[in-house]
Amino acid sequence: MDIRKQLIILILVFLCAPVSAQKKEKLITLKFTNIPLSEAMPKVEKQSGYTFFYESQQIDIKQKVSLNVKNETINKTITALLKGTNVKFEIDATHIILYTGKNNKAISGQPQNISGTVIDESGEPIIGANVMVEGTSTGVITDLDGKYTINAPAGSNLKISYIGYVTQTVKAGRNSTVKLVEDSKTLAEVVVIGYGTQRKSDLTGGLVSVDQKKLNMINSSNLMDRLAGQIPGLSVTTGDAKPGADQTLRVRGENSLSADNAPLIVLDGIPYNGSLSDIDPNIIESLSVLKDASAAAIYGSRGSNGVILIQSKKGKKGAPQVTYKGQFRMSQPQQTIDVMTPDEYITFKQDIARLKDGWSGDQLAPENILSASELINYKKGVTNDWQDYIFRNAFTMEHQVGISGGTESTTYMGAVSYLDQEGVVYNSAMKRYNINLNVTQVLNKWLTIGIQTQFIQRDGGGITPNIEHAVKQSPYGIYKDENGKYYEEPMDQSLIINPMANVNADQDQTRRNFFINTYADILLPVKGLSARTTFGYNYRSDFTGTYYGRDTKDGRTASGKASINNEHYWDYTWENLLKYNREFGKHRFDATGLFSVQQTQKKTSKSSAESFVNDDSSYHNINAGEKNKTVSSGLSETSMLSYMLRLNYSYAGKYMLTLTGRSDGYSAFGANNKYAFFPSVAAAWNIASESFMENAQNWLDQLKLRVSYGSNGNQAINPYQTLDRLHLTNYIWGDGGAGVNGAYLANDGVGNPNLKWETTQTFNVGIDYSFFNGRINGNIEMYVANTKDLLMKRTVPIMNGYKTIWDNVGKTRNKGVEFTLNTVNIRNKDFEWSTGIIFSLNRDKIVDLRGDKKDDITNKWFIGKPLRVYYDYDVDGIWQEGDKFTYTAADGTEKEIQKGAKPGSAKVKDADGNGYIDSNDKVIIGSKNPSFLMSMSNTLTYKNFYLSFLLNGTFKVTRELNEANIGSWSYNLYNYLHNADYWTPEHTNSKYASPAYNNFDGHSYYKDFTYIQIKNITLGYNFEKNFVKKLGLSGLGVNISVENPYTFCDIRSVLNYDNSWFASYPTARSYVLGLNLSF
After folding, report:
1. What is the 3-state secondary structure (H, E, C) of 87-107?
2. Which of 179, 512, 922, 1066 has its CA 20 to 30 A from that of 813?
3. 155 by DSSP, 3-state: which?
4. Coil, strand or helix: which one is 467?
């Protein structure tokens, strides 16, 4: 018999000794009235030390009982408790056995030690499974071999459960073996945390996991679209809505002024530097966002902006299953800009002419105010809707075929997908091809290997129309000439050329991305010790070839214009993990150590030329260009070496502690600061598991308090900033001399050998809660992040021979609150309605800049103010007749309060109160980041039908109000907005200034935008299995959905509310038909 078994026997003897010993009987004092028997029994157990046994089918534990005893024996107490009921009892040394008169001892046999083993489907022991005697609070957990011993009456029921497995109820018997099977409904409780997984109940850090159910709520072909509004603290902004464009991602706002604020993306355990729009969302199993310092500390110098962990699907044991997912989508701009009618446009031009140039009478006739080109169509009565030409109804189709399955030793998952997406703007489109393969091979009990690979190709290209030119174009402008070619300047010398002027250019864009991740899991001879080695490689190539021929404006000017851009990028990551997991009674301990190496390389090459003999060769023969030939190339390389240690400890599932430390060395930083250490600590207390909360067990599932503090870094700057960087130039010696190459040290070319990471120190407090068997659940988070050693350019005296240098100066602070509430509002046999509400509030500010307490007005950085602000003059009304336009200066002269102001001009606010307007009156208008974000999702299911919808709200974000900037529309007599409310002498009570007003000092106009988007509405149906089987299928589902159907906002002259520019690529409203098949 080995030492371990001797130790277990010794512990069992020690634990059982008090049971067999004669003990002094406790006297009981209790008083309660008319409460359920189920609530009364724990109170008696707590005072007496006895345990109730009963069979739940025979004893009605909901019946009400009362008790009023003082210093009474257990026998008299139970007699009083059960008075007036049909329940009888017997008492032995430690148990109170309840039964009814009809059944005479519902539980057969006296309590005795019952032993057994709990295993999983592969026969491996399950450590830490819960074994409970049904109907009692008596329970134990399985040991390292999956074994348990529990004191229970023979024939009683044992309830055996473990997270991620289906709970089983078995009859108590000697030496029984129970096999638990995985439960797909509860597997989500195990979440990916980075370098491993962890039970959600044991988490100490700020982490949010999204499973397939939430990801599939939106049918978008872009993975990040599916995350919008699903995770508190994660902002997904679609500033560019064209096909294949990447969104802007922010986790808990921004910490840095100059370095990148994007989170680190980790795909299947390996950092991923490709485009997220390349990934097929249908292959994603789950996604986790690490938000606080403890959760992200394992990624050290790259974790200060948060980490997004993406886990792709793996194969599962079973017969091969083939799936097909198809989507067919029709899209259109969610809204267009409602511009002036032809009559309004003429009136607008007449108002400009009389207010700016003093015209009147016949001078204002259309023949005098319209350009020669416009007059042609005016006389013909021809008008053009220019937005009709550039926008279109776009069709998209997407197909994916997948196969998965496996045996005891081999599992696999493969998928092939194709996306053909048209954009809602003419000439915008994308085709994407994805191939994915995931294979796991169990070679023996101690070695498992696997491979995960993806290949992606994306084709696009095409010069899109100029949206601003289409919006501002005259309704009388000429679209095409008599030869069918686009008319270059429909308004004649207006600087607003035909929006289609360059759409005939040749442009091809191809991106290829190859990602492979191989790994080996090794069980070492020491119990609880395992290792994993992982090697990941990512290769990406980007090609863009463009040629403007003579049928385009740019090509006509240059007699042909060609360019080619190439980029080749690769990186590899080699990570080695050593893990140790042990459990001693109620103590659970695990340790993870990491050694990691990463290297990256990027090569770029560009060439361009102009003036070609003809357009036949397109961009394929750039050497044939006669003028402005340029050739350039570049190379950048980085490498990183890392060590990490993470320790997790848990006691009885109540108290959790996590300690993490990571050391990173990065080649891009200075020789004096290449290495940095990033520590963190986190603790959690599961309050719901405490004995003093036992009375709440009927309604409280979880109440956990989490606290963490730690440091993360930001290394997101271009390499070689620590080195002196020479610039190339071409010198010509003498008249007619030949050029020679030379080099010089530019004003910003001096390196800083002391450059190091930005460091963010974050304090986080969180509460996780769940009530009424999960009917109400969620969490609350509060955080403060202080960032120091900001990577910024510092100005130095030019006498040093250079003007600016990168340095670590400045500090910022970022704090916020996040709240999640999930509820199951109605749940019955056929119908369920659930709701999710997410709230995120973030406040950032600059604490210090360069140590001199001075603001940086050039970059609009102000100490004590948000990181991104608008700094400009504040408009406070409109000048009217009768206003005082001058003030008396100190020398007694009369001067203009606002230079150039006259009735109809925008009135700029005198911020400093000195009586006149100058640059000192500029103020901080507002933050470019929203005050808070909020979203609400609802899912309703009725039998096989399901309906879901998602709302996203962005509240109080300051944006430029382009429609108010009438000077930018009237500068060259452009078209303006329908029903425009601008100032004229006849209409002084207007919303906006006169069209004759030239903005003082180039100021703009601003507004706090609040907009609520309906992101998605989906209705679907899953067919009955019996019907599906008749079709030879194993599953069949159809759904219809509408994406981005409407945005609620009081400003309508915007095409994309996530972009501050009114003429950005528009948000698309899409109608989608989906079909899911499985064989």
Report:
1. EEEEECCCEEEEEECCCCCCC
2. 922
3. coil
4. helix
